[in-house]
Design goal:
By secondary structure, the protein is of the alpha/beta class. It has helices at residues 4-12, 56-65, 80-91, 132-146, 163-171, 201-208, 219-225, 227-234, 273-286, 291-305, 316-327, 333-345, 362-372, 385-392, 401-410, 426-432, 451-456, 472-484; strands spanning 15-20, 22-35, 42-55, 69-77, 94-95, 99-102, 108-114, 117-124, 151-156, 179-183, 196-197, 238-242, 248-251, 258-260, 350-355, 377-383, 416-420, 436-440, 460-464. Strand 13 (248-251) and strand 14 (258-260) form a beta hairpin. The chain is globular and about 75 Å long.
């Protein structure tokens, strides 16, 4: 089942090397109930201070929290901040054997928090020049760190990972089964042809060197429109562009864009959500999940930490709980009608579709993502096992109804799933009354038996095209052919 994915990934215990710029995140927690006499600024009475891994160190800690063996290759100063960073990493079960002493002081990013709001951030030694010998120290640490590693995650934040380090990695590129690059400047790593690069929207825009999306165009669609330039600039095999509150976009060659949808949350004050996303993506890919499923797992992990104030990590148990909540999106018809009534009262546009979804494939996911973009809430009604047998024959479905429903519910584009037992979802349509009913295929709207029901309450019917060469029957036939050969 879907929640078991978290335990399966953790149970593999892969070895992951994280290479990059580590910082010490300092969080000073307090309360404020007065202003300073000297200036109109709050006075914060600091009650406690937390010292946490930041930057590449936070990525390493997040990967370790999800069950991997993690080696960090980085630099830390021989100062109190460096000692605190090493101790924070050891508490997070990150191997610091390959963290070398830097000539410069350890960079710290300090945030003062009162009433769960960041009042001010101040950085210490963030702009200090790097010593020419620092790059060599990193290069010298690489061979031992990479020995037997399953993946390398690069976290390049304009620190020590310059041309010398890239040259050293290029010489060993054939030894790296999986290379993921998280950087402000992915174009600098193009010669290594990373398996995945993970820029955010601002970084992708900078790589393209052109204005962001035009008015009325979503950031996801704008990125998809410029995918060719992004692949050319980054040299990557796959690109995942994170869009904060709008989720993320996965681009793979000429395959359709895959979009994830972030859980709505007030302005987040968790600066490490991107690190959590990269960590979970790495573990999911190492666990053999398809790229589309891997980014869904990564989105679920990021959704865990964005609800917190402070640098944070997502553990295996928290990821399991988050995925279990997705499985809990499978509702009875009565409960679904109640939930939809509340969402409609809140002004949400409800989109509804239905189908067997027996063997979930790329065509289904592209179709569901397109349906989600047409409204705020996507409801998927799934044919029961009895209904599928009646429609498709006695050897179907391949997957039982509750597993099919759980897989759909785990997709971030799907908000609610229900199972219906009739030939058509007419009864569910009457109780939920969606604003838009969508169906995939070569139908005309008036050909659909559900169309009169939707028209009767003033709803809209729209037909979306399926991806060519993607059908459940074809997938099942290929599986059977392979099994018999």
């Amino acid at each position: 089942m879907v929640p078991d994915i978290a335990d399966r990934l953790a149970g593999r215990h892969p070895t992951v090397v994280v290479l990059g710029d580590a910082v010490l995140d300092v969080w000073m927690w307090g309360r404020s109930d007065r202003l300073c006499r000297e200036a109109p600024v709050p006075v914060v009475d600091v009650r406690s201070t937390s010292y946490l891994p930041g930057g590449a160190a936070n990525t390493a800690a997040n990967i370790a929290a999800l069950g991997a063996q993690v080696r960090l290759v980085s630099l830390a100063g021989s100062d109190e901040r460096g000692a605190r960073l090493r101790e924070a990493l050891r508490r997070s079960r990150v191997d610091t054997t390959h963290v070398r002493a830097a000539a410069a002081p350890t960079v710290a990013k300090c945030r003062v928090v009162a009433a769960d709001q960041i009042v001010v951030r101040f950085d210490q030694d963030a702009g200090a020049p790097t010593d020419p010998g620092d790059a060599e120290r990193v290069v010298e640490a690489l061979p031992a760190a990479l020995d037997g590693a399953d993946a390398l995650v690069v976290c390049d934040y304009d620190g020590v990972l310059g041309e010398r380090v890239r040259e050293a990695l290029a010489a060993r590129r054939g030894e790296l089964p999986l290379l993921i690059v998280d950087t402000h400047h992915p174009e600098r790593w193009a010669s290594l042809h990373p398996d995945v690069v993970t820029p955010n929207a601002e970084e992708a825009t900078r790589v393209l060197g052109m204005p962001p999306a035009e008015p009325g165009e979503s950031r996801a669609d704008w990125i998809d429109r410029h995918r060719g330039q992004l692949f050319e600039a980054t040299g990557a095999r796959a690109i995942v562009v994170t869009l904060d509150r709008d989720g993320a976009v996965l681009l793979q060659g000429d395959r359709p864009m895959h979009r994830t949808w972030a859980e709505p949350v007030p302005d987040s004050q968790s600066p490490g959500a991107g690190d959590t996303f990269v960590a979970a993506l790495t573990l999911a890919l190492l666990g053999g999940l398809p790229s589309t499923a891997a980014v869904e797992v990564a989105q679920a992990a990021a959704d865990v930490v964005v609800h917190r104030t402070g640098t944070s990590m997502c553990s295996t148990s928290e990821l399991r709980d988050r995925l279990s909540r997705s499985a809990g999106a499978v509702l009875s018809e009565r409960d679904l009608a109640t939930v939809i009534a509340h969402q409609r009262a809140a002004g949400k546009r409800i989109v509804f579709t239905n189908g067997c979804f027996d063997v979930l494939h790329a065509g289904h996911i592209a179709y569901l993502n397109e349906a989600k973009r047409l409204g705020d809430v996507l409801v998927v009604a799934v044919n029961s096992d009895r209904s599928v047998r009646k429609l498709k024959g006695p050897d179907r479905p391949v997957n039982p109804e509750h597993e099919r429903a759980a897989m759909l519910a785990a997709l971030s584009c799907v908000d609610h799933v229900t199972i219906f037992d009739d030939d058509t979802p007419a009864a569910v349509l009457r109780t939920t009354r969606p604003d838009l009913y969508v169906k995939g295929g070569d139908y005309r709207p008036e050909m659909l038996p559900e169309a009169p029901i939707v028209a009767g309450y003033g709803g809209e019917v729209r037909v979306l095209s399926y991806l060519a060469d993607h059908s459940t029957s074809a997938v099942i036939e290929r599986i059977r052919s392979g099994a018999s050969s």
